[in-house]
Putative ABC transporter ATP-binding protein (Phocicoccus pinnipedialis), 242 residues
Amino acid sequence: MFKVNNLGVTYNNKVRALENANVELPLGKIYGIIGPNGAGKSSFIKGVLNLVKHTGEVTVDGTLIKKKQRDISYVAQRSDLDMTFPISVLQCVVLGTIPGLGLFKRPGKKEFEIAKEALEKVGMLDYKDNQIGELSGGQFQRVLIARALAQKSKLVFLDEPFVGIDVHSEEIIIKVIRDLRKEGVTIFIIHHDLSKARDYFDGLILINKTILAYGNVDDVFTEENLKLAYGSNIFVKVGENS
């Protein structure tokens, strides 16, 4: 069980990004994190992962999440990453194997093979020697997903992975994510396209400065909840065919 208890995030400028966030969800599913711009979605993930100062507690099957760092992968927004850093695609993905290595150990042949297998799964093996700065947005996002695959994590957190990428890359990424679910991996995805909520996710977390609703898609993705989060002017189909 993934459990968040009274999570709050306040930044140095005294802006309260998130408060009293409470969630309790079963593992092994794909969860979408939705809400309007500035609602605290990224702050929620960063608070959960101890990347920012926060209050509250997060546990996974009763164990504090900070004790499970080796089991967690986090893919930040591409806009937060330095595309000019001189590193090849393969080297970038190999970085995902480092948390599983012992202290002071460097990646070897085994780790490079793991990285190549991950690149093949996302259709990027042919680009293994390219510099990351040579890639399109969709290609680079697939490389970041491959790095998460190479880490072999049990929990994966993705911040807006589908923003600014091509349809082909999006299809590949969602297939990989569904394959991970089959392996028992739990995936949390910050997502802005409400029209795909039913297609992509098993459950949702609806945020606007706090958790407004969470659970199965049908229970969260209602007109009442969406208006509560986005305002009364939102227009989105919430029926079975949306």
Observations:
- The CA atoms of residues 35 and 207 lie 5 Å apart.
- The domain at 2-81+153-230 is CATH 3.40.50.300 (Rossmann fold).
- The first strand starts at residue 2 and ends at 10.
